[in-house]
Write a structure and sequence with these properties.
Largest sheet: none
Shape: globular
Radius of gyration: 25 Å
Low-confidence stretches: 303-330
Order of helices and strands: HHHHHHHHHHHHHH
Number of helices: 14
Oligomer: single chain
Helix content: over 70%
Distance between the termini: 84 Å
Length: about 400
């Protein structure tokens, strides 16, 4: 009996079969990623609350280390309790999230950032003990709190680096911009609280404050370009209200403080703290609303390749749909690359400052001023100077 042979597929048939398999794989991958990301949004929400609480604790601790006034002690105690509640809520969310199998779709990078964030949180109780025992300076406390906060922020920043639907990625990038701007505002609050509490605003502190203020402005300019219209309007209403002009007045007071070391008359420590806190609380409202938008975007992920085919031209090949999605990602990814550069530069500068403070006993403002001075004297970018400092001091015994 003669053997029967299967007819070979034509190139067109093979292409259609490949497209069918690819479409199914894309759908499955996106579904797993969206399920994981939707579950992760609960952790993001609790992490936002934790970061906000830690930022408030950092500011109040700075006041406490600046003076022993009972109001500062009470404020620090209140914010510590807030941080503890937020930490417990975030750990409970992680306990619910991590056993879920689809979380593996988030990848090693995300899980590693979570592990690093938890390691940083373990430093908190020891840091508080050092504060209570007067074993740490004000500047060292700011740096230590900032390192703990940065580790928490990196969990959210990692999410913005994962491939996803363009509209989900856009929300994530906008969220990261607000969170980064808010952290710089928190650092500014802590630094100027210290300056006002001491009654002296030296030039290095002025430079450090400028650095934070310029970073905030850049993040919020990018936010205004791509945030939902209602959130942009909310931010504009805040800027038109009474807090923003008062902040500018207090900033100007600090920038025009005497340079000869003579103290300010009646420095507005608590006024600055209250007004800066109102601004940071406003940014917290923005990040909370963006967190809600992220959850909504994950629940309605938009047009996956097979969904788009049903909604539009059913005969359009899946690979063309993938290409069209890639085109829509270009603008968002350009913003993301710019943001990654900003974050990378800030991390490098902060690392160099921390090394200068630890190895050469500089304060935070002195360390930043040193980087600025070397940058001007050598005609190098400040990031290049920071990289040299890290290379020199990070391996020193």
């Amino acid at each position: 009996m003669p053997e029967t042979t299967q007819p070979s597929l034509t190139d067109a048939d093979a292409l259609r079969e490949i497209q069918s398999h690819l479409s199914a794989k894309l759908k499955s991958t996106l579904e797993q990623r969206n399920l994981a990301l939707l579950a992760v949004t609960a952790v993001v929400r609790d992490q936002q609350a934790l970061i906000h609480a830690l930022q408030r604790e950092r500011g109040s601790t700075n006041l406490r280390l600046s003076a022993q006034h009972h109001l500062y002690v009470e404020l620090m105690t209140e914010f510590r309790q807030e941080s503890d509640r937020a930490r417990s809520a975030m750990l409970a969310s992680l306990n619910q999230l991590l056993p879920q199998p689809h979380v593996n779709a988030m990848g090693y990078g995300f899980l590693n950032k979570v592990a690093l964030a938890l390691q940083a949180l373990e430093m908190l109780d020891a840091l508080r003990d050092d504060v209570d025992g007067a074993r740490i300076t004000r500047d060292q406390a700011i740096v230590s709190f900032s390192q703990i906060i940065e580790a928490q922020l990196l969990v959210v920043f990692e999410l913005a680096q994962l491939e996803n639907h363009p509209h989900i990625l856009k929300v994530l990038v906008t969220l990261v911009l607000v969170m980064q701007g808010k952290e710089l505002a928190g650092q500014e609050r802590a630094l100027l609280c210290a300056g006002f509490a001491s009654g002296v605003i030296p030039e290095p502190l002025k430079a450090a404050l400028d650095h934070r203020r310029n970073g905030q402005a850049h993040c919020l300019e990018l936010f205004a370009r791509q945030a939902p219209a209602d959130l942009v309007a909310l931010h504009e209403r805040f800027l038109a209200g009474p807090v923003a002009p008062e902040l500018d007045r207090l900033r100007a007071l600090a920038q025009h403080a005497p340079t000869d070391g003579s103290p300010l008359a009646n420095p507005p420590v608590l006024l600055w703290f209250d007004q800066a806190t109102a601004y940071i609380d406003h940014l917290h409202t923005l990040e909370t609303r963006l967190g809600e938008a992220l959850t909504a975007a994950c629940r309605e992920p938009g047009a996956a390749p097979d969904q788009a085919a049903r909604a539009g031209d059913a005969a359009q090949p899946s690979l063309e749909l993938v290409a069209s999605q890639s085109c829509r990602l270009v603008a968002v990814e350009a913003e993301l690359r710019a943001l990654h550069q900003i974050l990378g530069e800030r991390h490098l500068i902060d690392r160099a400052k921390a090394l200068l403070m630890n190895r050469e006993q500089m304060t935070d403002p002195q360390a930043y001023r040193h980087l600025q001075r070397v940058s001007m004297e050598t005609s190098q970018k400040i990031t290049a100077v920071a990289r040299q400092v890290v290379s020199r001091l990070d391996t020193a015994p």
